[in-house]
Specification:
Layout (H helix, E strand, L loop, with lengths): L5 H15 L8 H8 L3 H13 L3 E4 L5 E4 L8 H9 L26 H16 L3 H4 L21
Antiparallel strand pairs: 1-2
Helix pairs in contact: 1-2, 1-4, 4-5
């Protein structure tokens, strides 16, 4: 079973919240935590890793906070999860990017092909989704009429 930890889930939710507010300036982490119903102290730990990896930037001061360093369409789910969780690794012999982690059975193990295909399929799925894909633009609201206050779709 491939399972991601709370670190990956919470970090991805935080990044999605920042993607929703992309272009609106830095967002206080307490607000992100409130929007996503997540512990702010834990997000502080996660945002440091994402900042060091170049996915978020921070600003100090009264109007400070965090924002995406790049547009949401340029950050994949795979990017975020690799920073927070490490390489994709269904089994030690099929760890993404690692050639030094050899299993003693790897030379004659037929199952390694399965693990490599699982790794590659998961990586492809995660890398094919961007934050923009997960946070589609909001639909414009229908204009209100002056006399009733109802939207034109309701009238």
């Amino acid at each position: 079973m491939i399972r991601f930890s709370a670190r990956g889930e919470y970090g991805l939710r935080m990044m999605m919240d920042l993607a929703r507010r992309y272009g609106q300036g830095p967002q206080p982490l307490t607000e992100v935590a409130r929007h996503e119903d997540l512990p702010a102290a834990y997000l502080e730990q996660l945002v440091g890793k994402l900042r060091r990896a170049g996915f978020v930037v921070s600003r100090q001061g009264a109007h400070g906070g965090y924002e995406l360093a790049r547009p949401p369409a340029e950050i994949t789910v795979g990017d975020v999860l690799r920073v927070l969780e490490g390489p994709i690794s269904p089994m030690v012999c099929a760890t993404e990017g690692e050639t030094d982690l050899l299993c003693e059975r790897q030379v004659f193990c037929s199952a390694s092909l399965v693990w490599e295909r699982v790794r590659d399929s998961v990586a492809q799925a995660l890398d094919s989704l961007t934050l923009a894909d997960l946070v589609p633009p909001k639909a414009p609201m229908a204009p209100r009429t002056k006399t009733t206050g109802r939207t034109t779709a309701q009238a």
